[in-house]
Design goal:
The chain has 321 residues and is an alpha/beta fold. It has helices at 2-15, 19-23, 40-56, 71-79, 92-101, 109-112, 138-145, 162-174, 186-194, 205-213, 261-276, 278-286, 296-305, 307-317, and strands at 29-33, 60-64, 86-91, 113-122, 124-129, 152-156, 178-182, 200-204, 217-223, 249-256, 289-291. Strands 2-1-3-10-4-11 form a 6-stranded mixed β-sheet, with helices on both faces. A 5-stranded mixed β-sheet has the order 7-6-8-5-9. InterPro entries: BUG, Bug_dom1. It comes from Roseomonas alba.
């Protein structure tokens, strides 16, 4: 009888959620976004934070900590108490690319962060200000920009971001003298582009879609593996014979490395369920991104498998911070 009691008790414990996940959360949860307010990561993080708040009955509060290519906010996430009350939102830039850009980092993301879930992918688009650049195709832009004695300024969403690397790569590949002008996100870059202070960018579609739709900037090419249904007439760089620009930026949630695994899995499962809902997937798509979801293990595997790609992109661009 005692043996049966022990076996039944053990089976019940194996089937029951761990205590950490059962009692969590009992107070507000912080979500650190390593970018300024108004950018695509911020917008999409807030959509998901609102859904998490409703699911768990506690506020999930977004806190913007931009700067240093996302390193400031990423470090803040990694150094937070691993108690399940701090998560971070970021992209492959912070978790993989920055280690090849910066001479030293305050943390090692692959060691100091727990991966939670991939939530979306941002396609990148090459855009020019309609009022200042007459070009209607990439070929026309190259012809227009190459002979300019002072070259052309290009905008990025920050030093070391994919928009920085792709802009440098574009100039190098096409024999155009380019000058990098970094901003604290696309929201800061946009007014400068509309004034003609910068003349192109290869940045994430989500941030620039409203200006494309209003014809204030013109989309010339997608830096992605395929065209987007949001801009079906805009070709990819690959279609134009320019290889190496298929650099979709994937993003999602992370947590401090020692965060209890049951809490990480609980949030990961919740995010997968939320993104699977058609109305949420539609909101992500309308914001210019692709809804994606993954387990923590798959997210880590993707980061590891793409390391050589991003390292090579940094090498080709010549960027060093």
């Amino acid at each position: 009888m005692r043996r049966r009691t022990v076996l039944v008790t053990g089976a019940t414990a194996a089937l029951s959620p761990p205590a950490a996940a059962q009692t969590w959360p009992t107070r507000p949860v912080r979500i650190i976004v390593p970018n300024p307010a108004g950018g695509s990561s911020d917008v999409l993080a807030r959509i998901l934070a609102a859904e998490l708040s409703g699911r768990f009955g506690q506020p999930f509060v977004v806190e913007n900590r931009g700067g240093a290519g996302g390193n400031i906010g990423t470090e803040a996430t990694a150094r937070a108490a691993p108690d399940g009350y701090t998560f971070g939102v970021g992209t492959v830039t912070q978790w993989v690319t920055n280690q090849f850009l910066y001479r030293s980092l305050p943390i090692i993301p692959m060691r100091d962060l727990a991966f939670v879930a991939i939530c979306w992918e941002n396609a990148n688009v090459m855009i020019v200000p309609t009022a200042f650049v007459p070009s209607r195709s990439v070929a026309e832009f190259v012809t227009w920009a190459r002979p300019r004695p002072d070259g052309v300024n290009f905008a990025s969403s920050g030093v070391g971001f994919t928009s920085h690397l792709l802009g440098e790569l574009f100039g190098q590949r096409n024999g155009i003298r380019v000058t990098h002008v970094p901003f604290r996100g696309a929201a800061d870059a946009a007014p400068n582009m509309l004034r003609g202070d910068v003349l192109f960018a290869i940045d994430n579609l989500a941030s620039w879609l409203p200006l494309i739709e209003s014809s204030q900037v013109r989309a010339l090419a997608m830096a992605d593996a395929s065209r987007t249904p949001l801009l079906p007439d805009v070709p990819t760089f690959t279609e134009l014979g320019m290889l190496g620009f298929e650099a979709a930026v994937w993003a999602g949630f992370v947590a401090p490395a020692a965060t209890p695994a049951p809490i990480v899995e609980t949030v990961s499962t919740a995010l997968r369920d939320i993104i699977a809902r058609p109305e949420i997937a539609q909101r992500i798509t309308a914001a210019g991104a692709r809804p994606v979801s993954s387990s923590p293990a798959v997210m880590r595997q993707r980061a590891e498998s793409e390391t050589s790609f991003w390292q090579n992109l940094v090498r080709i661009s010549g960027a060093q911070l």
